[in-house]
Structure formats: C-alpha cells, structure tokens
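Can you make up a protein sequence with its backbone structure tokens?

===
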Amino acid sequence: MTLQLLTTAQINANASPVVNTVSTLMTGMAAFMTANTSRTSATAPTAEANLTITVNETGVYKLDAFFSIASQNANGAGGFFANLHFGSAVGTFVGGGNFGAGGVANTQEIAIPYAATLANYAGFGFGDTGHVISAVTTRTDWVTLHGVLTITTTGTVIPGWSQNFSSANATLLLANSYVMLTKIG
C-alpha cells in the first residue's frame, strides 16, 4: 500500500487500511454545516447540500451524524424529520440514534430495526404538540444517528430533512451539524 501525505491536510491510501491485526490510522470523510438552514411549512424532506459526502469506494462504512436543531421562535411545533434518500450512492443502512432537548436527560431512542436501502429508508422524525423543538434563543435540541452503511455503488450520500409536521414557525438545522463516514470494511 502506498501512503501519501498531501499539502492540503489529506492522507491518501490506495487500499482499505482497516484490519483487525494491525493498529492503523483511520480517518473519516465528513461534511460540516458552517451556517444555519431552515424549513417552513414543509413535510417532504429535501437534500441538505451542505452535508454532501462523495464515496469513491464500495464497502462498509460507520455512519455518525449529529444534527443540531432549533425553532426560529418559541413555538417549534414543526418538529424535525430526516432521511438518507438523497445522493447517487446505492447501499443499505442499519442503525439508530437518539434525540434530546438542550442536552437534558429527556432523550429518546430512535430505532431502525432492519436494513433499509438508502432509496427506501423512510427516515425518522419527532415533534408534535407533545414535543416541540426549543426556541433557538432558549437552547439547542439535537439528534444523533449512528449505524453501518454498506455502499454497493459509489456516489454521493446526502441526508435530507424537513419539518415532521407542517408549521409556519421555521425549524432550523444549525451550524456545526455534521455527517461523517469512516470505512471499516
């Protein structure tokens, strides 16, 4: 295997570096939000282009995502919904996650009990009159998503998101949200 250190703070390897008998350097591909985006009165997810990752090698990847969310104002009844429908990569996803309000102990598990193709993965959502998203001026709510993504055809992986329930009060996906893929097989 050839290992190349580039001046652009990248390390290139011409083979998958992860094995169970050698300590190896594992790096991930990541997309990171530098500014807030918002959705209003919409329950059909649209791609979040700021979180696009290009996968150039088939295989198994560990997926880690952190979505920092808030409501534009005090009544965040729109909630949050996300999926992995967007992008050109083909594969399956198995995983789950959690969401919580302002880092307090009222987190709730998000369960995805089976392998779903990216095109057919329904996604997950929360928020209704019983659980509104915190106002951005009060605190930040969050969603995490973890799992295994098996890519069978290379391309882009792009999460999509929307409100879970249509509301004129905007739901915000905040700066510092990210998606990371690390090749593990």
